[in-house]
Amino acid sequence: MQSTRQEILAILKEERQATVEDLAKRLELTPMTIRHHLNVLQAQNLVVAAQVRRSQKVGRPRLVYTLTETADDLFPQGYGKLASYLVSEVKEAMSEEEAQTVFRRVAERVAQDAPPPVEGQSFEEQLDRAASYMEEQGFIVRWEKTDQGYIWTNINCPYRRVTREHGEICLMDTTLITRLLGVEPKRLSGQRRSEAPCSYLLVPPKGS
């Protein structure tokens, strides 16, 4: 992203909102140049514009620009560290068995929001449905058929920063897979200690 657009985003983050004139004055650029960059940022769904009446109610309403939620995600976040601290506290306050029960319950709560299975779906259709839902949760999922069953691969795990310190969090995705597909996944590889994606062998129920 061009530095000017980054500066615009930073100003909107700091000020919460700004007009073309505000940004032009702050960056010492012409209003035309600012509008060009704002149009690009709008096309990228990073800023939105709203009309605001002038206080004197004279003249045309002015456009005020603000950040979108998408743009807010571009700024540094501390979710990974916070989640790691929370998991540490859970593990210290509970026994290993109790902590694992908590992680499974969280995964089951996430799975409850998944669309219900459609009667008569093939196992491969169920795989597509489960993969689509997990991608909504931040996973990037691929599956392929083999002679032994289906290989399910999580190319991206949204919890990977936490799992590097707390392998118990891997119960989240295995519990999700079990709840969504009704089969117990057998781990083949994992991301915790390497860059290799998590992969599992799924053997469909007989008759699927």
Explain what the structure shows:
There is one protein chain. The model has no long low-confidence stretch (mean pLDDT 85). The protein has a four-stranded antiparallel beta sheet, with helices on one face. It is elongated. It folds into two domains: 70 residues, Arc Repressor Mutant, subunit A (Orthogonal Bundle); 124 residues, 2-Layer Sandwich (Muramoyl-pentapeptide Carboxypeptidase, domain 2), CATH 3.30.1380. It starts with a helix and ends in a 6-residue tail after the last strand. Helices cover 48% and strands 16% of the residues. The protein is α+β, with helices and mostly antiparallel strands and 208 residues long.
Helix and strand topology:
Layout: H1 3-15, H2 20-27, H3 31-43, E1 47-52, E2 62-67, H4 69-72, H5 79-93, H6 96-112, H7 123-136, E3 140-145, E4 150-156, H8 160-163, H9 170-181, E5 186-189, E6 198-202
Antiparallel strand pairs: 1-2, 3-4, 4-6, 5-6
